Request: fold
Amino acid sequence: MSDAHNEHESAIRNPKQLVAAVAGFFLVTVIGIILLVSFVTTNKLTGAGTDSQSAQAVAARVRPVADEGYTLKDVNAPKVLQAAEAVYTAICAACHTSGAAGAPKLGDSGAWAPRIAQGYDTLVKHAIEGIRAMPAKGGNPDLDDVEVARAVVYLANQSGAKFKEPEVPAVQPAVAIAATPAAAPPVAAPSVAAQPAVAAPAAVAPKLAADAGKNLYSAACVACHGAGIAGAPKFGDKAAWAPRIAQGASVLYEHSIKGFQGNAGMMPPKGGSSASDDEVKAAVDYMANAAK
Reply:
């Protein structure tokens, strides 16, 4: 019994041993911390921007763009046409994924069947020129007709059609121009002293009709702003328009004319219409004034 009892006794048998054990524990902890700090700080750490004024950093900032391997775009080069799915994702998905504004949803055979029955040419014509709430070229006038046709085929074929991918039309060779200009007819000498030319009156820019903004809203903007489709602030909704009006008229004009991609949706350039800049501004003023 005595041997078994001694085996279960603690190694610390008196206060001195307890103090020594506690001191040893703290000593080991302190030494470990010192070693860890020493290991971390062995290599010099520099924060962002520490060497921003060094000769190498300055040289990198002022190096010409051409040295970085960038390629300047040739504006005269043939346009690279986007694939069908890329056009759909960037332009068409805003409405055809959710069915906004009555757009037939991608893969909805029932909604696409009567449209497919109209034929390929009719569908492409409506997509390029626009129809009802569908803006011309989906609201992106920079799209090539072939890109629009590709997106139409992609949408229709995903919903039961078997249209053929449109072919890119061949580029017609330019007609050669004669190198020798035609001889100009002789000019008869005036028999009467030349009279001073009368300055033509300066052209006056046509004045917009008083209801130009309302007309454009009814023709193009109402498709989205009437029901708040694709994140568009609804007509007359003061809460939705307040932060936009606070940005200032110039920002609203720029977003409406050039287009804008936001977190909640997208605004196509000029709402997908062919209106002039002044007409678009008038429509913006009309909608903004209705929400004040």
User: Anything to note?
Assistant: The longest strand covers residues 260-261. The first helix runs from residue 2 to 7. Residues 212-290 form a domain with the Cytochrome Bc1 Complex; Chain D, domain 2 fold (CATH 1.10.760.10). The chain has eleven helices and two strands.
